[in-house]
Design goal:
Blueprint (H helix, E strand, L loop, with lengths): L3 E2 L5 E2 L13 H6 L9 E2 L15 H14 L2 H7 L7 H14 L4 E3 L5 E6 L2 H5 L7 E15 L2 E16 L2 E17 L2 E2 L22 E6 L3 E7 L5 E6 L3 E6 L3 E5 L7 E6 L5 E7 L6 H12 L5 E11 L2 E10 L4 E9 L6 E8 L6 H8 L4
Helix pairs in contact: 2-3, 2-4, 3-4
Length: 371
Amino acid sequence: MRSMPNQGGGSSGGQPPKKKGKTGLILGIVGGVIALAAIAFVVLYMLGVFVKGGVSSNDGVIKQYWEAFSTQDKDKFRESFPGNASNIDDLVQSNYDQSMKFKDSVTIYVDKIEITSENYDVETINEKNYKAKEAKKNQVRVPGEQVIDGHTYGIVDCYEIITFKQGGKWFVFDVNETGAEITTRDGLPYTKDATTEDTEEVTTEEWTEEPTTEEVTTEAATLEITTASSGDTKTVGDSYVGYIDIPSSWLNFNDTNGLDVPHGAQYATADAGAIITLCKYDNAVDISEAAKNMVDTYNTQDGVENLSMEETTFAGQTAYKVSCYYTNDGVTLNIFLFSDPSDGLLHFASVEYTYDYMDSYNYLVNTFRFN
């Protein structure tokens, strides 16, 4: 668990084991087919050079960027970034190299890209010595398909892309992956664990064999391993913290540093490459203030990048989402703060994952329910 909020804005909690996720899981592979998390960037400025390239509209430059990715077009990559960026050659080459990895297996549907935009602080752009007159923060959903082991998976990768306007043209400034979804498998709705051919949902109440339990201690946490004889998914949680559906291979996870809350539960992959935490506090608080306090805390931590906070919806409730990326161990963290509709008390739900476990985001966001 990365950090738990308290009402004063402090944090507690320990680091999970610093191990890479299992690269063999199809979920991890498909979830990251067109992800640029490994090459997230900020465009740097070089003084004294006229800004070249650009596109006449905000949506246009985003779609041009993805068209370049889809067609491995270096010229379109270059036109998507300001020509006077001091790292322009590195930007073009790194994006081109990433696109080449998926040239033969991935199809991107540029014409179906969905973009939701809001105004962004131009001063953040101009700190890099640009002269932006307008800037946008864009939530971008990029649909596509990838063929793996003879199966065609429909996927949607989600990004936050910062753009800015200078000299009448729009440019890409920053690209960061925020999540991924698997939508179909061989043309059918995808609703099961892609690591198996057939899946029958089995909840903890439906198990017919008594589970066995053992404990495995790692450098940062103790995993209480529970095994069951049947089922590829299981429902975990309780009526207080809520319920989610996760693969049966996931384990109970006990943070040795504690959760610092009265009611909490954690679940993880065997190597702790992905961890989901469900907590509930005994008091009702302003969720926006709690989120701001959390952001203040993360701002003081080393190795934290791409820190953001936004109002959203979670389990049908108004929520605040705090996200960041840990550079020291390659972990993306997404936290949702929301109030219980039955009693108004504060809920905390989070998912942290390495690149290979990006689809764990969906286990939390798509399956959480209060009862």
